[in-house]
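fyi for ur records
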Amino acid sequence: MKLRRKTLLIVGAVLIALNVVLYATSSILLLRNVHKLEESYVLQDIEHVEQAIATEFASLSTIAQDYAEWDDTYDFVEHPSEDYIQSNFVNATFGYLHLNFMVLLDRQRQIIYQKGFDPTTGRLTAVPPEVLRFLTTTNGRATALTTHSTPRDEHEGLVQIGSELMLLVSRPIVTSDAHGPVNGTLAVGRYLDEARLETLEASTQLSLKLVSIDETIPADFTQALALLTKQPNASFIQALQYDETGQLLIPKRADRIFRWPHWSPQADPIEHIAGYTLLRDLENQPAALIRVDSPREIDRQGRASVSYFTLTLAIVGALFSGLMLLIVERLVISPVARLNRDVERVGELADLTMRIEATGQDELAQLANTINAMLAALDRAQVEREDTQQRYQLMADNATDLIARQTINGRFLYASPACQILLGYTVEELVGQEMSELVDAADWPNVKRSLFPLFPDLGGALGATISYQIRHRDGHYVWFETTSRAIRDPNNKRVLEVIAVSRDITERKQAEQELRESEASIRSIYKVTSSRQLTFFGQLDGLLRLGLQRFGMEIAILSRVEEGQFTIVATHSPDNQLKPGDQFDLSSTYCAQTIASEDTLHFEFLAASSQESVPHFGRFPIQAYIGTPVIVA
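which gave:
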């Protein structure tokens, strides 16, 4: 091991050990007290929530008292009146007071009036049947709600209504001066739903979550419920962490966060702390859990303090390390730096003919000699590589075939200059294009299976040859024949890219097509002329039909020309309007030019002919024509 490395390792090890010891010590002394402070703040937040819920009950109690201790209500129980209802129980009152229902009962617990309301939508709703059963039946809860020993008596508590919780308050109906006898019961209720919970969050400036114990509760609530049911009037605190979906979950080793705070990883700290309190119903049974969670700002500040302390220590250690390095500068660092500068200069100039100056007999001199030997080897390899590259580039640039490198999906990585001659694309235009965008859609599935060896139906073949149509830059399609070969990784045989050599075979394809068509025509003509079942005129008719089919014409005529007269011998025409024996003036047909030329004449449209007027056969004007003279000896 070199001296410089020994020095760096020794200084670094001492600095790291010092930082670890002081960091662990500061974490134990500081963060443990920080966590105790966190617990006290969470307990205060729980008290604020309990006070907020108590305030909700107090608000309902005040509303119930305002209506129950009133002469008009007292008289309404004895003498129900629609005027009283229209004057006092309007929708606006329920919305302003955030009431979900109000029920009035007489002394016999018979319902005199009931009204349900949804303050969120502003619409009337039915009073929950569970509430009516609580008030009208004779079970224990009904007795507690509708039995009043004094005019000032009051009952309040939580009740479970379906899947929701409700704050319920009942007061005895007495006169305005709060004297009896009690004339009935007035009950009001308010759902402790998400909307109301948001109101509590706004008033307390806390993040709250309410869960009924009658429904499936998260794991963190399960732990809190198990403790709080055993210890009434207690609170439960634990650390939580957000998962990928934004839900608060119990992190790993959360039970150790307060006992061993210094082991909580600094790179992934537990970011939230939560407190839980148990809400009980009218029978003092557990009804719901409410959670207060907040970011661990105190913990973050404590960790920041520890980090600043550690950073300060690291700076001091770095200064000490610098002093140590200065001592060995002349012995090790300066020679190494000089060698490094020489090597960097070779790299900057990219001149492999340069050499490093080697002085002395120490390790640095040996390293310089080794670098010089390496530079000489690299220089020779570069010369050989450039020579090989120039030869291959010369071959590719002057090849008439298109040589290309492609990805396994058909994207061009390289194309030889022949691409501009064969396809009209420059090299820059073709590189980066997908082959699937150029190949004719009908040919692409076959091309994909044959040219790209990663597809399973090839079984990992090294290469293939296939013909297909590819779009020219001008828009027309040309025939290509491509031979491809897969380039594979020598270690895992995975296909890296595809080398493809392509040539234009359009003319060959056209010649093959014309040959096939000619062969088909010859076979058809032979079939007609050699048929023993056809008469001479039947054979003529067959030949005329073949001519119509082969050239795509509508009229076929075999005529006899004598003394300026054009006489039809055999014919095919639409609706058979031309018949054998029909005669025409030879000069009105295009056959006069055919006879004069003594050769086959043809034109695809009239403008290409020398005919001044449109020739006719009967009522058929001629726009396309092919004809040849038949000389009878």
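Residues 239 and 273 are 4 Å apart (CA to CA). thats all i got for now
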